């Protein structure tokens, strides 16, 4: 496939959307299965999921920076550099993932104390965090391989692998949770077994695709490659992204801890709402992910005007889609909540949050599209600073003040989450419109090219 076709917005976005859609559908089925164990099990999965997301940012710092550089280098037609960056991104991410796995497997009880997990949930928490979290290195493999493959313009392979992985996970859940095929009923432990088995198989398939993703095949000896100059480029782009991502996830983790202080019903309601909200945003998220890949490639190829305008096109498309989806969820969301639980208090809490989602989703789309566009051209430090300040003060601080101290509960917390997305989205939009960083990077590239031409030896 030609480069222009591989990096078209819809060519990149639709496989990502299909993957996210099926992940959300299968995630909903997964949540339903876990809810058959108990509402406490759902609460454990929801809270530990925030913890896992927080720790994921440690290896996504490397994987994300590598992904942007892969698209940029391919745009510059420096294919060998792109290949080297992909290899280093993979090996560094997996090394970090292994450290995280060891910590989660051995320290689940200590982590529960830090997050104020209720004593009655500790047995379920220890089982889930130690065993499912112990397989985080597999998630590091999948994340780094997915990111590298997608940024070559191939978004279909991760889609197919993701579909297979999630379908296998659901099938194994049915067997292991409920004791089918002669196996004992393992409950929440069965979820951890099915998750790790499906992730292992997915990582093996993705690695095979990764081996053939570049002009020259990647072999096992290549995994020892390390070039300090290119690795510094990865870190320079990646570390602010990692801090940004970590700030968001830790903010969400803190908010989940605040919700846990409100009670198990509020925590379960928020977990159910997370599942429903994902359906609103998945198409917008796929477009935002695609535009990051496309903008990075166009910027690397020197097509700056197309990169600049393409970000706005993606934003407008994404806003229209998420607003339509949020309106649909508002109309039918109450019925879907009954699929997860029959607890009248949880249902009442969930219904009260559906209207807030009409504002939350467009605000998230604005923030993500503009944030990804700035990241694609390397302006990651600005987005990091904006995110840390807003999330610390507006999202986290505001949620504790209004949600816990002022007694507004989930209503106050949702209001602060919306305010945070609007603040960050507006600031990064103004940054992109100003084009200050973008034009500076273009000027730097032109000066670098000019110096290289002057220093090149003349041919006699």
TrEMBL record:
Q: Which Pfam families match?
A: MatE
Give the main location: membrane
Transmembrane parts of this sequence: 7-29, 49-71, 83-105, 125-145, 157-177, 197-214, 234-261, 281-302, 314-333, 382-402
What name does UniProt use for this protein?
Answer: MATE family efflux transporter
Q: Which residues form a coiled coil?
A: none
Stored InterPro entries = MATE_fam (IPR002528), MdtK-like (IPR048279), YsiQ (IPR047135)
Which compartments is it annotated to reside in?
Answer: Cell membrane
Bilayer topology reads:
Multi-pass membrane protein
Q: Which keywords does this Swiss-Prot/TrEMBL entry list? A: Cell membrane, Membrane, Transmembrane, Transmembrane helix, Transport
């Amino acid at each position: 496939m030609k480069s222009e076709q591989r990096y078209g917005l819809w060519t990149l976005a639709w496989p990502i959307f299909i993957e996210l859609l099926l992940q959300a559908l299968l995630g909903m089925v997964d949540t339903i299965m876990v809810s058959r164990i108990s509402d406490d099990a759902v609460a454990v999965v929801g809270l530990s999921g925030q913890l896992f997301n927080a720790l994921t940012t440690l290896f996504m710092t490397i994987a994300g920076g590598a992904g942007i550089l892969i698209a940029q280098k391919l745009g510059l037609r420096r294919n060998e550099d792109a290949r080297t960056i992909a290899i280093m991104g993979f090996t560094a991410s997996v090394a970090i993932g292994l450290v995280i796995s060891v910590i989660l497997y051995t320290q689940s009880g200590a982590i529960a104390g830090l997050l104020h997990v209720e004593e009655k949930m500790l047995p379920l928490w220890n089982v889930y965090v130690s065993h499912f979290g112990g397989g985080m290195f597999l998630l590091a493999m999948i994340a780094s391989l997915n990111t590298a493959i997608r940024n070559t313009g191939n978004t279909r392979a991760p889609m197919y692998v993701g579909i297979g992985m999630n379908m296998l996970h659901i099938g194994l859940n049915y067997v292991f949770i409920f004791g089918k095929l002669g196996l004992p009923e393992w409950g929440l432990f069965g979820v951890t077994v099915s998750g790790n088995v499906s992730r292992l198989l997915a990582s093996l398939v993705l690695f095979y695709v990764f081996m053939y993703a570049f002009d020259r095949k990647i072999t096992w000896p290549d995994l020892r490659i390390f070039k300090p100059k290119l690795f510094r480029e990865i870190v320079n782009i990646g570390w602010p992204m990692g801090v940004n991502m970590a700030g968001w996830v830790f903010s969400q983790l803190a908010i989940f801890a605040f919700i846990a202080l409100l009670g198990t019903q509020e925590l379960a309601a928020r977990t159910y709402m997370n599942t429903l909200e994902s359906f609103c945003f998945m198409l917008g998220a796929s477009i935002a992910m695609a535009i990051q890949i496309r903008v990075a490639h166009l910027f690397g190829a020197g097509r700056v005007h197309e990169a600049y305008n393409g970000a706005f096109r993606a934003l407008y498309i994404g806003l229209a889609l998420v607003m339509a989806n949020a309106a649909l969820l508002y109309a039918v969301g109450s019925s879907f909540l009954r699929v997860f639980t029959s607890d009248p208090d949880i249902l009442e809490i969930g219904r009260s949050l559906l209207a807030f989602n009409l504002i939350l989703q467009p605000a998230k789309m604005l923030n993500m599209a503009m944030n990804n566009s700035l990241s694609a051209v390397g302006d990651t430090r600005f987005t990091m600073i904006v995110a840390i300040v807003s999330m610390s003060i507006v999202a986290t601080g505001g949620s504790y003040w209004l949600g816990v101290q002022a007694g507004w509960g989930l209503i106050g917390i949702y209001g602060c989450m919306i305010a945070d997305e609007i603040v960050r989205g507006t600031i990064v939009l103004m940054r992109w419109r100003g084009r200050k960083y973008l034009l500076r990077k273009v000027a730097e590239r032109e000066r670098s090219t000019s110096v290289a031409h002057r220093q090149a030896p003349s041919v006699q």
